[in-house]
Amino acid sequence: MEKVEAKGDAGYDLGVVSINSRVFYVLQFSAVTLLIVLAVLRYVFGTLQGNETLELATRIFDLDRENSVPTWFSMMNLFVASVLLFIITIHCRARKQPLTHYWLVLSILFLGLSAEEVIGLHERVTYFHNVRGSDIKLIRMNAWVVYGSVFAVMIGLYFVPFLLRLERRTAALMVLSGGLFLSGALLSEFLQTLMWDFHPGMRPAGVAAPKTSSTDFLVFLEEGGEMYGVALFNCTIFKEILRLGATLTLRPVPN
Question: What residues does each domain of the chain span?
Answer without folding.
Answer: 21-244
